[in-house]
Amino acid sequence: MEINDKIYCKNIGAYPGSINERKSYIIKEVNDENVRIQNNEGRLRWYSRFYFSLNNEPEITYIHIDDKIENIESDAIEVTIEFSDKAKYWITFTTPKYLDKILDEESYFFSKHFLIIKHLTKESIQSTILKLDEQNKLIESCKKYK
Length: 146
Description:
Elements: E1 6-9, E2 24-30, E3 34-38, E4 44-48, E5 52-53, E6 60-65, E7 76-83, E8 88-94, H1 96-105, E9 114-116, H2 122-134, H3 138-141, E10 143-144
């Protein structure tokens, strides 16, 4: 790794707000153990080389809708996303009407890996995943399979 090399984040470690997995960064300074990059906050910071790779970021190779969509307006559907580096993530898609049902039974709803869309169709799920990926927000919205 050298100054001005384009590197790709492969792990955010303890820095979830300042770097993103699969996002590219340009090396500004380098030493034996660390690289200095301009992070998501626009600040020059040192990070361990461990978090980065010179290889291109992995691409989505597979989107699998794990559950049968029974009601496009009120359901919860888990989706598995696989990348070219064989990493797998999951996210649950739901609709506002589904949340209304839950809130009729409970006084609150909390989930970190739910994504709300208007209608649950294969096309809307896939296009939402691709849009999030383009914006470098997909990984932070999903949970990694261990």
